[in-house]
Amino acid sequence: MAIYLVLGASGKLGSSVASLLKSSGHVIYLASPDPPEADLISCDTSMWFRCDLSDPTDVFSIVSAFVLSDKVLDGIVNCAWDNSPLSSDGTMDFSVWSRALAVNLFGPLTLVKWLKSFGRLSERSKIVVTWRRDGLAEDAYPQLVSASCVRNLFWMSFPQHVVTVSYEDVLTKLPEILGE
């Protein structure tokens, strides 16, 4: 029985990933700003953290919980994504862009860095970074840049751990990625 952390667990993709891991008999920890589906957290093998990845205090509370519990993660599946809309004139307000970068990049990257530095990721742990291949509007250039940055920075920071997979393929490829 492996231990996994699913970021963005209250979203459609995050809850699907959590359900897949739970049905495979794994211990799942869920992180999202809103509670995930009740059936995901209604058993002895799961726990939910209220976490807004743009808030460093929320991110560190997850790290603290793992340090105090002495658990080591076998993997993290990042399904969190802030797909902030562009304004009607095609621009994005700086505060909106800052939040998108915090949720999509800085929060998850900081979380992984801290978990690794405190020994909560094993040498075999997998970090699955999801990204959208389809469904973005033609004017979604900031989101595409953000997705590319996320994939590249995770890979550069943790090359032996990171696997990137599109939203569309994650449910079918996850068992293979995790070695099941």
Give a brief rundown of this model.
The protein is α/β, with parallel strands linked by helices. It has helices spanning 12-23, 56-69, 94-117, 141-157, 170-177; strands spanning 3-7, 27-32, 46-50, 73-78, 121-131, 162-166.
Q: Work out the strand percent.
A: 15-25%
Helical percentage? 40-55%
Strand order of the largest sheet: 3-2-1-4-5-6
Count helical runs. 5
Number of strands: 6
Instruction: Tell me the structural class.
Output: alpha/beta
Gross morphology is globular
What gyration radius follows from the Cα positions, in whole Å?
16 Å
Task: Please characterize this protein's 3D structure.
By secondary structure, this protein is an alpha/beta fold. The chain is built from five helices and six strands. The chain has helices at residues 12-23, 56-69, 94-117, 141-157, 170-177, and strands at 3-7, 27-32, 46-50, 73-78, 121-131, 162-166. Strands 3-2-1-4-5-6 form a six-stranded parallel beta sheet, sandwiched between helices. α2 (56-69) packs parallel to α3 (94-117) and α3 (94-117) runs parallel beside α4 (141-157). The chain is globular and about 50 Å long. The relative contact order is 0.16.
Q: Which short descriptors sum up this protein?
A:
alpha/beta; six-stranded parallel beta sheet; 6 strands; globular
Helix-strand layout with pairing:
Blueprint lengths: L2 E5 L4 H12 L3 E6 L13 E5 L5 H14 L3 E6 L15 H24 L3 E11 L9 H17 L4 E5 L3 H8 L3
